[in-house]
Structure prediction request, 118 residues.
Amino acid sequence: MLIYPKFIGYGKNIKYQEKLLKYQKAGIVILCDIVEDDCSLTLENLSDRFFNATNIRIIKKTVARYLKEYNYSFEKIKFIPERRIIASTIKETHDYVIKYLEYSLSNRFILFFDETGI
Prediction:
């Protein structure tokens, strides 16, 4: 939260701004705890959980702003499946290489088809 220059000369406004900033930081911590417990919640659900935890109602824009200050985003992570090296796959690869070498040594033509659709 920014403190604008027009508040500089007024002691009450500066104290109010500092108090407000302290409560906002506490709200961010509470909201981050809620997100860490369940990161699949929507902004509306986060707002409801925040209300249940603090008895303070905040709107979705405030939740989004707090999460932005926390550097949290709702982008989904795509997991790349691990290459599985299991006995059956190793055996199939071994058999394929043996057959390929037999055909290539016998001077036969080998035609490869791409069936992936790309």
